[in-house]
Design a protein that fits this description.
Peroxidase, domain 1; alpha+beta; 8 helices; disordered N terminus; elongated; 2 domains; 193 residues
Length: 193
């Protein structure tokens, strides 16, 4: 399963979400619950996409008119439907108890970032002027992994015809802009000097 968002999030998780994610990551890595990091990552991602990003769920869970016991029952039913590990269900309940369920998507993203760091996985967003064929995505993934020292790089590709040609790649805090639109802007700026 992919990370918490279909296209990688551009907003960093809150510091509270990062603390929850780090605590959960440490527990999972200790092996005391017998659940793999990948299983927890996928379950968090599913909770984030199936619950937190759905307005109807968010309204139900955050409504002060619904008693906490009913919210717990609702989440317990959802946990069975999602077949979530107990560790994730417990985290969701802790977030609910602390009035921080809105941080669940941030926890999922922060947990996925910890997973990528531990496994030397990069995450790149590619903005392309035209559809990006799979074989070129594979070549770019390998080239980025080699250049930046990752074992692999995950790509999220979006199409932006305004680039005219080429692509822009964002990997961590690095931006590689090979778009024709940027080249035209640079030529124009140089000509006006």
């Amino acid at each position: 399963m992919s990370d918490a968002h279909s296209a990688f999030s551009t907003q960093p998780p809150s510091s509270v979400a990062q603390h929850y994610a780090q605590a959960l990551f440490d527990v999972v890595q200790s092996g005391q619950d017998g659940v793999s990091v990948e299983t927890v990552r996928d379950a968090l991602s599913q909770w984030a996409s199936d619950v937190v990003t759905q307005p109807e769920w968010t309204t139900l869970i955050t409504s002060p008119a619904i008693p906490l016991s009913e919210k717990r029952a609702l989440l317990a039913t959802l946990a069975q439907t999602l077949d979530s590990p107990l560790l994730v269900v417990n985290l969701v309940n802790i977030l609910l108890d602390n009035g921080r369920l809105y941080d669940l998507a941030g926890v999922a993203e922060a947990f996925a970032a910890l997973y990528r760091k531990a496994n030397q996985l990069g995450q790149a967003v590619v903005e392309s002027a035209v559809p990006f064929p799979e074989h070129l995505q594979d070549s770019l993934r390998r080239a980025l992994a080699h250049r930046f020292g990752f074992s692999d790089v995950q790509l999220a590709v979006t199409i932006n015809p305004a680039l005219l040609a080429g692509a822009i790649v964002r990997l961590n805090d690095q931006v590689i802009d090979g778009s024709f639109a940027t080249q035209l802007t640079s030529i124009k700026a140089a000509a006006l000097r």
